[in-house]
Amino acid sequence: MLTFRQILKKVQKPAYYTGGELGSVVKEKTPDLLRYAFCFPDTYDIGMSYLGGKILYGLINEMEDVWCERAFAPKDDMEQLMRENNLPLYGLESHDPLSAFHLIGFTLQTELSFTNILNMLDLAGIPLLAKERTDLFPLIHAGGPCAYNPEPLADFIDFFVIGEGEEVQPEFIRAVQEFRREGGTDKVELLRRLARIEGIYVPRFYDVTYKEDGTLASFTPNDDAAKPVITKRIVRDIDSIYYPKEVVVPFAEAVHDRVMMEVFRGCIRGCRFCQAGTIYRPVREKSPKVIDQCCRALVDSTGYDEISLTSLSTSDYTGLMEAADTLLTWCDPKKVSLSLPSLRVDNFSVELMDRVQHVRKGGLTFAPEAGTQRMRDIINKQVTREELQRTCRIAFEGGWLNIKLYFMIGLPFETVEDVAGIAELAQMVVDTYYSVENRPKGKSPKVTISVATFIPKPFTPFQWTAQDKAEQIDAKIALLKSCIRSRKINFNYHDRKTSYFEAVLARGDRRLGPAILRAFQLGAKFDGWETHFNLDTWMEAFAQTGVDPDFFATRAKSFDELLPWDFIDCGVSKAHLIREAEKASRAETTPNCRQQCAGCGADRLTGGDCHAKR
Prior knowledge:
Blueprint lengths: L3 H7 L23 E7 L3 H4 L3 H11 L4 E7 L3 H9 L18 E5 L6 H10 L15 E5 L15 E3 L3 H17 L5 H9 L4 E2 L4 E5 L5 E6 L8 E2 L27 E4 L1 E2 L10 H4 L4 E2 L2 H15 L3 E5 L9 H12 L5 E3 L10 H5 L8 E7 L3 H6 L6 H13 L4 E8 L6 H20 L10 E8 L16 H14 L5 E5 L2 H11 L6 H9 L13 H10 L4 H5 L14 E2 L4 H12 L29
Parallel strand pairs: 1-2, 1-3, 3-4, 4-5, 9-19, 10-13, 13-14, 15-16, 16-17, 17-18
Antiparallel strand pairs: 5-6, 7-8, 11-12
Helix pairs in contact: 3-6, 5-17, 9-10, 13-14, 14-15, 17-18
């Protein structure tokens, strides 16, 4: 058997597995210490970029008698050596096996990570099925955007956290601590206590029945502690909630290796395909003063020289100019740059970009999402051709050469004209460059079209819509390719097989559990990576477990069908989603939330407060 040091010498990225980074927390192992493992079901470089993980790591470690450690999915070379040398998956801070922890929490950022959760539990020597984990600890829980449809993972997870974690995490951790102090040993009784906390869902406390056609017949609690409806947890005032003054600075380069500062939650736009725009409502903005304080502390403690102001749509933040001007008073002297992701076509300006220092004028990215105005009206993406042209002109005059445009195909009510319109819109951008008199001389523009297949997600107006079948997507891709005639336009498209698989898991129910388990047993993992994903493996798993994936992905649902996630209240009413679906069928738009409140209902979770209405 190799020692840990010998193993590290044989892997490509040893820094992923050592721990000990600046900002990491080590605590004394006392009998009263509650051990918590925050698990990101992907590799270190991706997981260390996750802002939510940085927040929860700091928050939990500030709790008395609680120690939060990190764990990530090892890459193939490390996993092979771990299995060969009987090295269980461990917490980075202590190097203790995960089986020694009381609470193990996974974040669900994408359905494509589900098999990585099973692989990490397997590497830790922890039984995969919740019913087989009869000991009190460890308790396995999960949260994040994919927890809004927790049912596909119901067989594996002891409890789910629905909504925002800053308040509920300490609440359920304290409940577990209290249970331990009382000398409790009954796992079911502990889960009952947790189920009484708002935002906690315990799958074992619910029974599901099905109709002959395979649709859901009922979803009912089987325990007095279980609520018929799980209401998401939400933080009302994000100025007052915890934000770390220190974060772990990774030894190895992370995907996003910089200070990340959240400026607001929610979105005013109401794009009908966007799950995040629904589940994070209502809009709550952070004040420029608090943003400045947090950024100063993080730059001082980490030494980072870049700050990224993040949100679902940063340029919609009403305090953006004030915050940027305040930050630049000290960022410029310290040579710290600002970056503004999530810029929109309809509010891009020279004034805005002047606030951003040291931006490499190589490329800008925008997301028209659809090629024609009719299609953009259907999805409520309120971006016009004229606005895109104006924005590109501003960019080209400012010295930018490369423009990347994101689109989707397979959208509801899409026609061949809508698909061809993607190529036409890209050509318009190329033509705009050559119409700019003071464009960079002797250089050519580069316009990249990046196309993904539409995925109908829960808690969107399109959650009832069928995904296009494979042959339909292939025909549309072929059509789009034939419409591109300029060498200045590059065309990239996301593998439709991955999008199909994602749709199955996104809209599935707990009958998918055996298929997920079987796919893992057949070798599925890192399904979000092109180098690993194999749809044939999944189709074999579906066939062996009697699951028809088309039933979940390519079948349209009626408004009165019981959906697997209907027991979750995300704040936005189902009636609002139906209204938006009906307006989409008529290609009618809904104004953004600052122009006119659409009555989505999310503000009832904050006592009627929504910053978009201020």
